[in-house]
Task: inverse folding
């Protein structure tokens, strides 16, 4: 049994969505300064780094990430779809032709845009691809076993297409009798080093903070 993480380390220079406060990780007490122990003060917004969005992110008084039981954050049939996209492009329904999703409970989209996270953070933040609202709706309507979607971009919303991004989030979260349960969304994932056939199980571990819509998370993947 072998495990890898599909989440990025949270650093004080981690890219965060435009408009969010940059993370601050500052030494507090330090042995090197004569203190008896090391400690740090961490100041981050809850959508920093690899993080998981729950419905309350866009729907007020909805399910928050702390409302999810541990078993709701374990996915035993995760898949990776390689749909490479350039800047500002959306994953569309035509890109889903031939995708086998019948057994999937979690879908990770690898767009190949992760390569800009370190080499060109500005492009990563302002030119990122996204997922169209039609794809989100189609998944919820036709594959009701899917409970989570993730992407290797800063957001499922393309920064240059904010209206489509908002609609995509609402399609993921809204309650509709014709759709499956609301989706969880994982953004800013580390997918470049994993192959689809390697994945066996995924465990998502959000920060244990009560009363917030979403949270940074560690994603633990069991691989072959």
Result:
């Amino acid at each position: 049994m072998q495990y890898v993480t599909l989440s990025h380390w949270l650093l004080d220079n981690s890219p965060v969505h435009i408009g969010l406060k940059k993370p601050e990780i500052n030494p507090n007490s330090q042995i090197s300064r004569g203190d008896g122990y090391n400690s740090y003060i961490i100041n981050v917004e809850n959508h920093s780094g690899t993080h998981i969005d729950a419905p309350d992110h866009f729907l007020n008084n909805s399910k928050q990430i702390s409302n999810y039981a541990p078993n709701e954050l374990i996915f035993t049939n995760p898949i990776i779809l390689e749909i490479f996209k350039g800047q500002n492009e959306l994953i569309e329904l035509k890109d889903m032709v031939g995708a086998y999703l019948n057994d999937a409970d979690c879908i990770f989209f690898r767009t190949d845009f992760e390569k800009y996270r370190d080499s060109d953070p500005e492009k990563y933040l302002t030119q990122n691809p996204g997922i169209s609202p039609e794809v989100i709706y189609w998944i919820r309507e036709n594959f009701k076993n899917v409970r989570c979607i993730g992407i290797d971009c800063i957001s499922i919303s393309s920064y240059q297409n904010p209206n489509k991004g908002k609609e995509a989030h609402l399609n993921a979260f809204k309650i509709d009798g014709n759709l499956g349960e609301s989706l969880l969304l994982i953004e800013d994932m580390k997918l470049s080093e994993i192959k689809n056939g390697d994945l066996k199980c995924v465990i998502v571990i959000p920060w244990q903070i009560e009363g917030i819509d979403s949270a940074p998370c560690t994603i633990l993947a069991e691989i072959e």
About this structure: Residues 150 and 186 are 4 Å apart (CA to CA).
